[in-house]
Structures are given as C-alpha cells and as structure tokens.
Write a structure and sequence with these properties.
The protein is an alpha+beta fold. It has a domain of 42 residues. Helices cover 34% and strands 16% of the residues. The protein is built from two helices and two strands, in the order βαβα. Strands 1-2 form a two-stranded antiparallel ribbon. The protein binds zinc ion. Zinc ion binds next to β2 and α2. The site of zinc ion has 8 residues, from β2 and α2.
C-alpha cells in the first residue's frame, strides 16, 4: 500500500505566508532551529522554496559557528 502522492505534483513551500514552489525538503528538526515559521509544525518533512532555503541555510550555518565559539 502506498499513500505517496504523484511525483509530478509540485510541493509548495511550507513557510507561513509563502506560496512559492518548493525546491528542497528538510527534516522538521533541522528547520525548527531556524526562525522560519511554518504553516503546520506537525509535519515531519518541510518543503522550502528557493528564498526560504537560502534563509534557512544562512541561519543554520550561523548556528554552527555559534557552537564553535562556546
Ligand atoms: Zn517559501
């Protein structure tokens, strides 16, 4: 049994207020470290559009440098 949706259906960005087409998806644990607000935070896989992916990447790489500083 498969509940998978058709592959060709484009995902929409899961960030609140955004309706752009998603480019990539991430685990909710990764995305919750950033300041991005999601439409639904009970999902496991978060889809991000190009812009929010950039924002997410920027914020999470900042996190990593904070870890190194102590
Ligand atoms: Zn977006």
């Amino acid at each position: 049994m498969s509940l998978a949706k058709h592959e060709e259906v484009a995902h929409i960005c899961d960030v609140a207020g955004c309706s752009s087409e998603a480019e990539r998806s991430f685990n909710i644990k990764q995305v919750s470290k950033s300041s991005l607000e999601l439409k639904d935070d009970s999902i496991r896989q978060v889809h991000l559009c190009k812009n929010h992916y950039k924002k997410f990447k920027k914020e999470t790489s900042n996190d990593r440098s904070l870890d190194q500083v102590y």
